[in-house]
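Ticket #4471: structure export looks truncated?
Reporter: QA, pipeline team
Priority: medium

Steps to reproduce: submit the single chain below to the structure queue and open the exported record.
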Amino acid sequence: MKILIVEDEPSLRETMTTALKKDGYVIETASNFNEARSKIGVYDYDCILLDIMLPDGSGLELLKELKTIKKSDSVIIISAKDSIDDKVTGLELGADDYLAKPFHLAELNARIKSVVRRKLNNGELAIEAGNVKIFPDKKRVIINGEAIVLSKKEYDILYYFINRRDYLITKESLAEGVWGDYIDQCDNYDFIYAQLKNLRKKLDEANADVEIKTIYGFGYKFVVK
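Actual output as written to the record:
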């Protein structure tokens, strides 16, 4: 799961980054309005943690732009401004939640899981495709009623695909979603092929009725057989 933290205060940004990386998230950061604007225009995120008061602009303007360009990234506004007006404005502009500073990191993590689950899986705890079931809160995968063991990146790849079933996914999009935005600077994607090979083998061994199909010349597609 890929998250963008838009926060101008360095120590808080670093604290959030460290904590969320420990929980297995892929983290990108932006310290100001223009940096955040550039990132959301190019990359997709499962969730954006958005401060309202930035040194060169308003987080609410970024929220407006997200909706204007029809991005579906979940957004949690995180701000020291805790007035009713700010909350109402943010939610009316399309934010999924609002968390006032200061906050506990455990609550932030719970809010992230909640908004992403609502958006991707209609609020259900498990995500299902065929006989494959993923429990994101526990990072657990069940196939045919049996738990299977995946490496962190194998799980991340499966999670990325199961939320985008039947969509054509380029190797660049997969790499950015699982490894982070700066992965597009790599010379090749051999590391993706190795992880995909291992994941496909484990899915086959578990008799999963889903498949990550290679669409030659384009990328991949996750389908139920």
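Status: closed, not a bug. The export was complete when the record was re-opened. Leaving a note from the reviewer for reference: The CA atoms of residues 2 and 45 lie 5 Å apart.
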